[in-house]
Amino acid sequence: MEDSGNTTGMSARPVPLTVAATPPEPGLHLIATPIGAARDITLRALDVLNAADVLAAEDTRNLRHLMDIHGLHLRGRRIIAYHDHNADRQRPAILAALAEGKSVAYASDAGTPLVADPGYRLARDAAEAGFVVRALPGPSAALTALSVSGLPSDRFLFVGFPPSSGAARRKWIESWRGVEATVIVFESPRRVKQLLENICETEANRATVICRELTKKFEEVLRGTAGELMQSIPDEGLRGEIVVLFGHPEPVVADDDVLRAALGELLGRIPVKEAAAEVAGRYGLSRRDVYALALDMKREAE
Fold this sequence. Notes:
Layout: E1 27-31, H1 43-51, E2 54-57, H2 60-69, E3 79-81, H3 87-99, E4 103-107, H4 119-128, E5 133-136, H5 141-149, E6 156-158, H6 166-176, E7 182-187, H7 192-203, E8 207-212, E9 220-225, H8 226-232, E10 242-246, H9 256-267, H10 272-283, H11 287-301
Parallel strand pairs: 1-4, 1-5, 2-3, 2-4, 6-7
Antiparallel strand pairs: 7-10, 8-9, 8-10
C-alpha cells in the first residue's frame, strides 16, 4: 500500500456508470486509488474497475466501498484479496486468470500500487510470464507531499517506512542522510517524533516538512527544521496518515576533526573498510583517503 489512508467516511454521491461493460485488453491493470478524497480516482480507473473480468485488491472492503461510492457493481465478480500476508498463496490464482486471457484489475489500498505494497512481485511474475502489464496512474501520497512541500523536486528519493528498532533505524537513516536529494518517508503517526529525534542527533537544522491527512478534511502541512518540528510534536505523536520530507543535507566542511568524529562513531560497530566507504560517501571524499585515516585511527587506538 502506498499509504494506509482510505476512502472510508468520505461523503460523495454515487455516480452511476452507464457505459457498457466492455472488458479492457487481457492483462494485469494496476489501478491507483484515492489517498483520501474519493473523487480523486480517474475516469479510466473507473472504466477498468467497471469492466475487468477479475478484481483484486490489497483491501477488499476499501475497494468495494470505493466502487459503491461511484455506482459500480460487481455483477457476480468477486474481489480477490492480495496483500502482504497471502500474496504467495493468491498470486497463482491471479496468474491463472491471466493465462485464460482475462483482464485483471489490481487496486491498492490507497495510492499507487507497488509503492510500499506487495504488488511488485505480482507485476514482475506477470511480465516474466509474457502477460500485458498496464499502469493506470493516479493518486500518490509521496508525489502529493512533494508537490506541496516547497522542497526541491528536481531530485528526490523515496525510502519507504523506517525500521521500528532504534539501531536499525539509525543505520537506515545513515544510508540516505548524505544523498543530495529531497527524501520522502512514510511514517507511523505515533513514531514521527522519534524519527525527528533521530535526525536531530546529527542534523537538527535540516529542512523538514510533515504532511498529515493529505487530500482529507483535516489536511495539514507543517514546515520548519527537524529540531523545530520535533519540539512542536507531542510525545504521543500525531494523528492520521503521515508523510515526512527532508530537504537536501546541510553542507558540512569535512575537516580532520569532522572525519575523525564520523569514523569514531562507526569503527567500533562495523569493519574499517565499510566505515571508510560510508564516511567517504557522506562527505563526497575519496574512499582511499578516508580509508587511510581510518587505518591510522585504528592503529592509534591499538
